[in-house]
Amino acid sequence: MEEINRTLFLWINATPQSPAWLLSLATFIARDLIMIVPLLIVGMWLWAPSHRVMPQRELVLKTGIALLYALTISWCVGQLLPHPRPFAIGFGHQFLAHRPDDSYPSDHGTTIFTFALAFVFWHRLWSGVLLLAIGTAIAWSRVYLGVHWPMDMVGGLLVGLLGCLTSHLAWQVYGTRLLSALHQAYRLVFALPIRKGWVQQ
């Protein structure tokens, strides 16, 4: 498996001869595209058609729970199965600054794939597929720039799947009560913006 991981890495990883425009594009994707996650979460909670408010907020909360579980699982796996990043062992070429901490599974991969899978399962297939495509681009970019192994991204996908499953099971136990409590707290804290019509109540 390690040999496959290294072979795939060398196939994807950029070299000093790689085009500057592609390195710049990969850097943008690797560093900035992940911001779609918090932006969509906040946007979907604050703004929605009146008949979609609660279903949309349920999706936001279930996705948030899935992310918390997935990142916790990711941290535990990283502690149990530490694996150095490619540049930490002098393998391949690095084009993105990063601390030489453990790489498996990828936090970026875990976050975007959890988010994408949540939309596949609980929103609409087209939105989930679009986010999976974005996740694949992020996974490619971080391997291309030399800060992750391909298997780090596969690990992130699997942990994201586990996070969604755990969230779905947890929702049956406390999801509705938590949504109600958060909704009440939101209406209290955002009373003025709601009254002004800036955000949905």
TrEMBL record:
UniProt GO MF annotations: undecaprenyl-diphosphatase activity
UniProt superkingdom: Bacteria
CDD domains for the chain: PAP2_BcrC_like (cd03385)
Keywords: Hydrolase, Membrane, Transmembrane, Transmembrane helix
Annotated transmembrane regions: 20-47, 59-81, 112-141, 153-174
Entry's Gene Ontology cellular component terms: plasma membrane
E.C. number: 3.6.1.27
Pfam families tied to this protein: PAP2
InterPro entries for this protein: PAP2/HPO, PAP2/HPO_sf, UPP_Pase
The keyword Transcription is annotated on this UniProt entry: no
NCBIfam families for the chain: PRK11837.1 (NF008813)
Protein name as it appears in the record: undecaprenyl-diphosphate phosphatase
Organism: Duffyella gerundensis
Lineage of source species: Bacteria, Pseudomonadati, Pseudomonadota, Gammaproteobacteria, Enterobacterales
Gene name linked to the record: ybjG
